[in-house]
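Researcher: Let's do a round of design. I'm pasting the structure tokens now; please hold your answer until I've finished.
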């Protein structure tokens, strides 16, 4: 069992060989002494462990970037850290990061970043394949008319098919697909939150999460307020995201499955996969359902009209790697 966490300064890895029965020692793996390493994500397949995290850019300490490290021997040694967004690109702040492992040692890192001049978020991805990160990152295509895109979440539906979900600033959830294992993306996205609300309850969808069993079954969950109050909902695909069944509401509390407050949903462990991961995002403020559109705690930092939280956050991500027998 592997767990990666940030203490606000450095990223540490803990490893257990007894399913967590005894206290594990931790190792600093970020290879950065500037003390600003946050929001780690981890995935594993066999002895390969991939970790990404947010850290200052190589050429500009005032801007955040995405970095990655890889171990091929179950965490004993690590590759030199690599900046996943080209260092020569200035003015972008990386946030909302995600990491997914796939068959054959592949891993897909995705994140959103803001173009400070345009005040516009875009989602990017970069593939780890054949023991190395691909030379450049990709901007995940969204339809031209869509506003800012952020909070990506991705999963390998098969060896060659990847499904990535994201939120837009109009509070809608979309998915985009890759059919070459994350090397490229299909040009169009599909909207998932199809509810038709009453006039007093405009559609608001937040924080998508994607998971797959690796056999083309894909589940996408998110928080949805189309019923007037927040609910956790899900859509299932049996064909790697080519089509989806209707939305299913997962919480059952009355009325309308709604709660006075809501949290970021997560699927937890992925069944039937070589690498079973639990990803817990950074601790978020509890958001009131009274006015989710205007509450700054319910928006990512940098989105129009929002402000970043000043509280210190500890981020944790864990992964249990199971070898095939």
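Researcher: That's everything. Go ahead.
Model: Designed sequence:
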């Amino acid at each position: 069992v592997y767990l990666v966490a940030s203490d606000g300064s450095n990223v540490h890895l803990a490893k257990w060989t007894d399913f967590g029965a005894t206290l594990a020692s931790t190792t600093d793996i970020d290879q950065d002494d500037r003390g600003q390493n946050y929001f780690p994500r981890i995935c594993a397949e066999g002895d390969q462990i991939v970790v990404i995290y947010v850290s200052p850019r190589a050429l500009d300490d005032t801007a955040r970037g995405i970095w990655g490290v890889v171990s091929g021997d179950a965490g004993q040694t690590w590759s030199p850290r690599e900046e996943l967004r080209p260092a020569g690109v200035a003015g972008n702040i990386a946030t909302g990061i995600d990491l997914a492992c796939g068959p054959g040692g592949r891993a897909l890192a995705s994140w959103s970043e803001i173009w400070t001049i345009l005040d516009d978020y875009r989602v990017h991805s970069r593939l780890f394949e054949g023991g190395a990160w691909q030379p450049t990152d990709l901007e995940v295509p969204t339809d031209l008319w869509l506003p800012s895109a952020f909070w990506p979440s991705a999963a390998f539906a098969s060896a060659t098919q990847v499904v990535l979900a994201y939120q837009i600033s109009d509070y809608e959830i979309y998915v985009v697909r890759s059919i070459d294992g994350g090397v490229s993306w299909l040009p169009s996205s599909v909207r998932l939150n199809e509810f038709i609300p009453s006039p007093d309850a405009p559609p608001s969808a937040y924080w998508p999460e994607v998971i797959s069993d690796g056999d083309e079954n894909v589940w996408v969950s998110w928080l949805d307020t189309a019923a007037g109050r927040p609910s956790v909902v899900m859509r299932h695909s049996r064909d790697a995201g080519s089509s989806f069944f209707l939305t299913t509401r997962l919480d059952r509390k009355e009325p309308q499955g709604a709660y006075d407050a809501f949290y970021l949903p997560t699927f937890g462990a992925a069944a039937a996969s070589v690498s079973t991961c639990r990803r817990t995002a950074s601790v978020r403020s509890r958001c009131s359902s009274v006015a989710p559109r205007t509450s700054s705690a319910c928006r990512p930092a940098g989105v129009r009209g929002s402000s970043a939280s000043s509280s210190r956050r500890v981020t944790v991500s864990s992964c249990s790697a199971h070898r095939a027998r």
